[in-house]
Specification:
This protein is mainly alpha-helical. 74% of the residues lie in helices and 0% in strands. The chain has one domain. The protein is globular and about 50 Å long.
Length: 204
């Protein structure tokens, strides 16, 4: 199940990356690069920090073909994206949950503690979007809009707590994905976000 969700996630992330590149009128090489960085950035940052090798896209180069195709498809269907917005938000939420759980699993597989596993899940879930936005010269959206990083961190903590309570792993994954997915969609629907800090420098 997680592999299926992961493939859905990297496909959706690649397409959002391609659209971000399109807003800046990048050429097709730039579109594919931004798409791939968005899809694999979080997992790559996690693996480098944890010393977990080979990186996913190196171990499975066929995933690069998938993200490339997703990026190209995004350029073709871009005129219709406004109609598909809700679908992509749902796919992105599913991908976020898959990335989060997989990140936590990688850390646990390396016999690292629960705090590191929770952070590994968070990094996997959000850093692809962070890198995408930095390359596109804008403040990362995950720090501005509806609850995103907090949902990822909360899902990672929930997953680890369920494992600690000896819940079967398949059930822990299912509960985590359904719970995190639901909270993310509710955050989008009702515009939930953390309190924002605004500092205006007074005129001299």
């Amino acid at each position: 199940m997680l592999i299926t969700l992961y493939l859905i996630g990297i496909t959706a992330e690649a397409m959002t990356g391609a659209l971000a590149a399109g807003r800046l009128k990048m050429d097709l090489f730039g579109v594919v690069m931004i798409a791939s960085v968005t899809a694999f950035g979080g997992g790559s940052v996690r693996d480098i920090l944890l010393g977990h090798y080979p990186l996913t896209w190196i171990a499975h180069p066929e995933y690069l073909l998938l993200t490339t195709l997703a990026a190209l498809v995004a350029t073709w269907i871009a005129p219709y994206m406004s109609r598909l917005r809700n679908l992509f938000l749902a796919l992105d939420a599913l991908g976020l949950m898959a990335f989060t759980v997989i990140g936590a699993q990688v850390a646990l597989g390396m016999e690292l503690g629960a705090p590191v596993a929770a952070l590994a899940g968070l990094i996997t879930g959000m850093f692809g979007g962070v890198i995408r936005d930095l390359l596109c010269n804008r403040v990362p959206l995950v720090f501005q809009k509806e609850l995103y990083a907090v949902v990822s961190l909360g899902a990672a903590v929930l997953y680890l707590a369920l494992l600690h309570w000896l819940v079967p792993e398949w059930l822990a994954v299912l509960v985590t994905v359904v719970s995190g997915f639901s909270v993310r969609l509710l955050a989008i629907r009702f515009g939930w976000h953390l309190p924002r800090f605004e500092y205006n420098v007074p005129d001299a």
